[in-house]
Design brief:
Helices cover 79% and strands 0% of the residues. It has helices spanning 2-5, 10-26, 29-40, 44-47, 49-61, 65-71, 74-94, 98-125, 129-160, 164-180, 198-203, 205-220, 224-246, 262-290, 295-300, 303-323, 325-346, 351-378, 385-415, 420-430, 433-442. The chain crosses the membrane at residues 48-69, 76-95, 134-157, 163-184, 196-212, 224-242, 262-283, 295-312, 328-346, 352-376, 397-415, 427-445.
């Protein structure tokens, strides 16, 4: 791992450090839900807004990242993003009521939504095509590890300290990083000034509305309000698409879809991300509800999968240049199928089967997600990389959120008739369909391309 990190520039390392810290904060809150529910006397549907609101805020801002990169120098842009995150973290940490925590998380979501596509675009633009596979493998290592270790860190902190210490921890770390790294941050992205199109910005609400609708299905069902939000969101997105085609410098340049290889890469990224997210949802439930392990041990049992993921990511980056995306997808999706199958067959027999299944699911993600991001952006000219990255990160969030909702609906439905263990087993069996779709999509890739 450290050998691969040394191959990156100091600026890229700073970007990865900031992104790693923000990513961990993204995945820590679920562990604190029971404590917050008790402290503020709120129910499960209310506390869920700490995650749902965060994701909606992220999705609203992600499509704006190409405009931000083109119109604001990278150093002040990065500093502003971090300051917004620090303000949100401070509000959440010091708030005497639950609404303040929600506001703080929304601000954190805005910052993360601006950062993720921005930092990936900058790293991609400043890396030669031949080295992008390895570089994005390291990016995948950092991002995947952050997602996996978040619940572990929160479990350890909450075991001995207040939930406010979680926010304090990330505030201190991020503050130290941004202050000490000022001399390293460079304005590497060329500016292409354009006016801010408020109509496009307004129609972006459609992305947030769609994600909110997806996340609210388990709570509200397909009610009249749900359908109204869905229809309005789709209409707004249709207006956004039409508007972008008429602008000389659009927020999102949708001509990226004309380049062969971009759309399959985008879809494969979302499908592989689904496997990673579902692993972090299902496995703690298996460990805690079926085998009655403590939350701390539940988190620690996710470590082997996180280590496996971190070891594979840089290696799959190299393999992208050697064997191409198609073969990597075959390997990764097959691993994910085996992971879900193992849970479906033996998930309730012993916790060790879950440990192996998590390694297969997260390892399969390493073979697909970042190689697919790299291959999709390699199909684009350099001036469209930021637009491609913004679309990929946005759709990855939507597909990931959709996967969690489907898992929740399946588990709730099955649990009405059978035990929690059997409902988790059946849910795992149904999710085999997702990597099968990935395999079918891989057959449409060109064997000699996508490198």
């Amino acid at each position: 791992m450290f050998k691969n990190l040394r191959q990156l520039t100091p600026f890229s390392l700073v970007l990865l450090s900031i992104s790693f810290t923000m990513s961990i904060s993204q995945s820590t809150m679920t562990t604190a839900y029971p404590i917050l529910m008790k402290s503020f006397n709120v129910d499960a549907s209310t506390v869920q807004w700490l995650t749902t609101g965060f994701m909606v805020a992220m999705t609203l801002v992600m499509p704006l990242s190409p405009w931000l990169l083109d119109n604001i120098k990278l150093k002040p842009l990065l500093n502003t993003i971090v300051v917004i995150f620090l303000i949100g973290t401070a509000i959440a940490m010091l708030s005497p009521n639950f609404l303040g925590i929600i506001i703080g998380r929304l601000l954190e979501g805005v910052a993360v939504g601006a950062l993720f596509p921005t930092f990936q675009s900058v790293i991609m633009e400043n890396t030669a095509k031949a080295q992008r596979g390895l570089t994005m493998g390291v990016v995948g290592l950092v991002m995947g590890s952050a997602l996996a270790v978040g619940p572990i860190i929160s479990g350890i902190v909450l075991q001995w300290v207040s939930w406010r210490a979680l926010f304090a921890l990330f505030f201190i770390i991020l503050f130290i990083i941004i202050v000490s790294a000022q001399h390293v941050i460079k304005n590497t992205h060329p500016l292409k000034h354009s006016s801010f199109d408020w109509l496009s910005a307004a129609t972006l609400i459609g992305f947030g509305g769609l994600l909110y609708d997806i996340a609210s299905i388990p709570r509200t069902g397909l009610s009249l309000n749900w359908w109204l939000i869905f229809i309005i969101s789709c209409l707004l997105l249709a207006l956004f698409t039409i508007r972008q085609q008429k602008l000389a410098q659009p927020f999102l340049n949708l001509t990226v879809f004309k380049y062969q290889g971009f759309l399959p890469g985008l879809l494969l990224t979302g499908i592989s991300y689904s496997g990673l997210i579902i692993a972090t949802v299902l496995m703690p439930l298996f460990y805690q509800r079926v085998f009655h392990l403590e939350p701390l041990w539940s988190g620690l049992l996710m470590v082997p999968a996180a280590v496996f993921l971190s070891q594979l990511n840089p290696r799959t980056g190299r393999l992208l240049n050697q064997i191409g995306l198609k073969k990597l997808v075959y390997i990764g999706m097959t691993m994910m199928i085996l992971g879900y199958a193992l849970l479906a067959i033996a998930g309730t027999h012993a916790w060790v089967y879950g440990l192996v299944a998590a390694m297969l699911l997260e390892g399969g993600n390493a073979f697909v997600m970042m190689p697919a991001v790299t291959a999709a952006n390699n199909a684009l000219p350099k001036d469209l990389v930021s637009h491609g990255t913004a679309l990929i990160t946005t759709m990855r969030q939507v597909i990931g959120a959709g996967s969690v909702v489907v898992a929740t609906i399946l588990m709730t439905h099955f649990n009405e008739h059978i035990s929690i263990g059997q409902s988790l087993v059946r849910t795992s069996g149904w999710f085999i369909i997702v990597p099968v779709i990935g395999l079918l999509l891989a057959t449409r890739l060109q064997s000699h391309s996508q490198k």
